Amino acid sequence: MSYTVDEYRREVSAKKILVVGMGRSGIAAVKELHKLGATVTAQDINTVDKLDPKFITYLDREAIEYYFGSIPEHMDVFDMVVLSPGVNPNLDFLVDGRNAGVEIIGELEMAFRLSRGKYVAITGTNGKTTTTSLVGKIFEEAGRKSTVVGNIGIAAISKVQDSTDDEWMIAEASSFQLETISEFKPVVSAILNFTPDHLNRHGNMDAYGACKAAIASNQTEDEYMIVNYDDKACLALSRATKAKVVPFSRQESLGFGAYLEDGYIVIRDENGIVHQICNSEELKIIGDHNIENALAAAAISFFAGIDCEAISDAIEKFPGVEHRIEYCGVVDGVKFYNDSKGTNVEASIIALKALKENIILIAGGDGKAQGFTELSENLAGRVKSIVLLGRAAKDIEKAATAAGFTSIYFENDMNDCVKKALSLAAEGDKVLLSPACASWDMYDNYEQRGEHFKSCVNLLLR
């Protein structure tokens, strides 16, 4: 940046800023920018009655103008627009603003400009939340001042006022957030993997990949980009960066980077010295995908300057994250697992591979223009029956039937799905909620869906 944080904060205080999308990020942006003295206007596609009444009270009390269920008539009255991640930057009124010379950025970009300290940024189709949480625990173990933010559920902009020069912001970054950056520049970035997702938003894999690769677009030679060596499409996203590329691999030994050696996670540094981190068999998080997440987290932390002992201690103690193959209890000898974070086909395949066999799968939701052929090809030998709900239920049934899988049932809500799954299961089986879809057709977010699943399971435990 060609300006200091204090200079930019003073500049922002004199601007007229439209914040679009009143989810967590948008609400936080409105409040933080208002605190800085900017003239803020809020906009959302939903009408007032669909939004948080406490937030409406706040807007009225602070005399903040808002357009809910409508859009501003003239975009050229604003100096800039800040978008929530869920807002498509190509909406007509935003295009009008861009054509009028209005700067349009995302909440993560604004947070970066207003923050002191350094950023670690982690993206990928799957594993972001687990890896970001683990990196946060490693930094905490090492005694580094750090805050976990971003797509994980805590808006980065909500933490900027209290940020300090010695602080690390550990950010989970989605493709939606990376689509609207311009100056964002982490010290360490990471792309964990790259498979189809959000094609209803991005249109094709090239556009989706460009958003992911943007995470390292402003990095320089003295910074690091961690990337999955085993995922060649992911590895290809590192080609354009100026950062030092650090590969990680679960399958091969590497001349530089993080990999497995006799079952141990190790890191070979820039001088060729091998540092042993921990035994991968002692991880509390299950599945090959979590070994990859641990490899990535170890590499991110090592090249951010964390010592190996702190990395090892944190990885070995890490219990995993909520809504990702989360054990929920056992009913009549049947174990229940919440994988509501499985919002795409690849994530659900990962969960199926982790639980291996004798699975009753609950799936369905907003399919996001995905195909379900690959999911269906991974059912045989693992899944005994599928219980489907949501908008994509028929699409999943069609793909599963084409793959020769016929034990398929439909239900209208989560409670009925859980009851049906238990009725289909035998002692020793596992009921897995791993929707392979977004939650937006029935829930506000995957967390709400996962909590509902757990509450339905808890009713059976009583």
From TrEMBL:
It catalyses: UDP-N-acetyl-alpha-D-muramoyl-L-alanine + D-glutamate + ATP = UDP-N-acetyl-alpha-D-muramoyl-L-alanyl-D-glutamate + ADP + phosphate + H(+). It comes from the Bacteria. One of its GO terms (molecular function) is ATP binding. Keywords: ATP-binding, Cell cycle, Cell division, Cell shape, Cell wall biogenesis/degradation, Cytoplasm, Ligase, Nucleotide-binding, Peptidoglycan synthesis. The keyword Repeat does not apply. Its EC number is 6.3.2.9. Pathway: Cell wall biogenesis; peptidoglycan biosynthesis. Residues 122-300 form the Mur ligase central domain. It is found in: Cytoplasm. ATP binds at G124, T125, N126, G127, K128, T129, T130. It is an enzyme of class 6 (ligase). Residues 323-437 form the Mur ligase C-terminal domain. One of its GO terms (biological process) is cell wall organization. One of its GO terms (cellular component) is cytoplasm. Its main location: cytoplasm. It holds the Pfam family Mur_ligase_C. Cell wall formation. Catalyzes the addition of glutamate to the nucleotide precursor UDP-N-acetylmuramoyl-L-alanine (UMA). This is UDP-N-acetylmuramoylalanine--D-glutamate ligase. It comes from Mogibacterium timidum ATCC 33093. The lineage of its organism: Bacteria, Bacillati, Bacillota, Clostridia, Peptostreptococcales.
